[in-house]
Amino acid sequence: MNVYLRVVVIWLLIGQSVGMAQKKNEGYQLRISRATSPVVVDGTLDEPVWQTADVATNFWMVLPADTSRANVRTEVRMTYDDQAVYLSAVCLLGTVPNAASAVPYIVESLRRDWSFGKNDNFIFFIDTFDDQTNGFTFGVNAAGAQWDGLLYEGGKANLSWDNKWTSVVRNYPDRYVVELAIPFKTLRYKKGISRWGINFSRLDLKTTEKSSWTPIQRQFPTASLALTGTLVWDQPPPQPGPNISLIPYVLGGMAHDYQTTAPTSSRFSAGLDAKVALTSSLNLDLTVNPDFSQVDVDQQVTNLDRYELFFPERRQFFLENGDQFANFGYSTIRPFFSRRIGLGGVPIRFGARLSGKLNKDWRLGVLDMQTGAVPETGLPVQNFAVLALQRRVFARSNIGMLFVNKESIGYQEPTVQPGSGGTPSGVPVYSQYNRNLGIEYNLASANNLWSGKALYIRSFNAPPTPGSTTAASTQGDNAVYAANLQYFSRRWLIGAQLEAVGQNYTAEAGYVPRRGYERGIGTLGYTFLPVGGSVLSHGPTANSTYFFDPAGRQSDNESVLSYTVTFRSKSVFTAWAATDYVRLLQPFDPTNSGRPTLATGTEHRWTAWGTDFDSQPQRLFTYGLATRYGGYYANGTRLNVTADAGYRFQPYVSLAVSASYNAINLPQPWGRTTFWLVGPRFDLTLSNTLYATTFVQYNEQQQNMNVNARLQWRYKPASDLFIVYTDNYLAGSAQFGQDVPGFLSVKNRALVIKWTYWWNL
């Protein structure tokens, strides 16, 4: 423990020494003035205000080099009125000698929240509190498809956030013109603040040039809020007035389950979300009987891991300001994980979230959700309550606190003890309560080169019921200590991380797949930056991870040496080699398919190598290929080949397929095992408001094939009609029916129609 306390002190001292400088690009200023006449969002830019507004232009190149001005020209202007802030951008297209193209621009489709690296685009970033930590991003690709998201941790974007705004893009042979309006009710900002952080970014794939209004080093994303300029208002932005939105939904559907004796069921439900702006920077969200049937299905993977896999949250209600809850901790130490709430057939009855800024330095998040009972499994009514509080320190760092309480209402001692999905072995599927209290320091230097975190979390578990056979513990070894520090410059990547997770630490509402260990991680990388030629950058990276059990004995280690080459065409090639050691702490089936297990305490060593290649995104046909070959458990071998391919008929049709093949050779009783995972996807975007997607996933390891087809019509901003069809088949068996010939047998299918409407009061 003393070692970790010393590490925390060092982190704080580093934060104090590197975090006090002024924002680097403070001198880049764009003045915004009130419009003297109405602005019509039509992409023509014929309003008088656009002729007199200040211009942000003469961008800096970020890639392929960050030492000169951009070759592709962009001109940005902004204005506002009482209702909205307006932006126009003239984006001239780059030219390549002797290059021919059927269209002047490159895009994937008209679908929202497209992939940044695969679309000609214009995006911008707003830091409404100028705190260099949290903000908003909006943008469009060259065909007019929208992009919006929340920025957190200084420049990471959550594109699952969705809100009301309008945009129009007009295309010409040598340019595309953007005009958009963002209502003040969509943004969160503090009354009286007249300086916002802002930056603008362009990607022109034909010339492979990424550019930014402010100068940004190539290793950083253009979303880096520490590197924004300043939007200077002629007077503080107007208050949006009463800001209450009601978002009702109505849903109907039918389902047929071929594995039960009463297979057909119908479904009708309705619910309501509400958004209430208590202030211009603090928002209250309410939900009653929410439904998330329209959310994209998870992309399946072949699971050969000893621990639970992580799948990200996709449900809209949990996403706004969700970083304050979800990003507390590390990727494998999350005291709160919202996907624990309401999945697996557990209904959510109601919930509330209060989130936002109290002022420039203080940020608050409060979440309370209540689920319904599930009589079939004996699961009672449960309540999930979370409190997050964050205080900015120095230029960009912060200290955060998180309290999580999961409580079973009307608790009765269960008679079964599954112990999975985040609960420790021997603990029932639900307990009377589980609580987590944590504090963390997040370091982010003013120059964006240093980042890190130091945290302490403690869990409080319900005592065992007298006379029960459960083994829940309330004392001893129920804490987490962790810290990391990273330096990331143009050429160097240096990082170190330490973790200690107690054997009895429990986060029933979190994601902590492994407990009872200490871990050390070291990373060292270097990037060469050649001048000219076809290679943009190249260099090695070494990474080592060591695990130790509670007795201090080594249980795992993995060391990887990789070399990456990035070409000016934007294709990327990586080769790597790795050594692994595993001493099993519990029985494990190396095929994860319900077969015999390797014994606890057995030791396994192997080496492996692999390659990854991603083709240049400018082509209509794109592809990627990853390989892995080498040793495996029990002196066996494993071969993995993963391929992705896509073709687009831009901007309306996008075809993609991914396939993964695993061949595992082990001694008896396992022998040779092969797994296929295949996932074709078809996207049809008839306009930037009408999308149709069909996604098929065949998973041989799970002996399942899933078909998910979804039609979405955005008939008004943030208002949608969804039609969703799902089908699941049992692969390799004909046990449950004969609807599908051959090796597939239908298990269940469902059709859902859902209508939502965003109503501003």
Automatic annotation (TrEMBL):
Lineage top rank: taxon: Bacteria
Domain named DUF5916: residues: 244-342
Coiled coil: none
Biological process per Gene Ontology, one example term: carbohydrate catabolic process
CDD domains on file: CBM9_like_2
Annotated Carbohydrate-binding domain residues: 41-208
Pfam family, one: CBM9_1
GO molecular function, a single term: hydrolase activity, hydrolyzing O-glycosyl compounds
InterPro entries: Carb-bd_dom_fam9, DUF5916
Protein name: Carbohydrate binding protein with CBM9 domain
Organism: Spirosoma oryzae
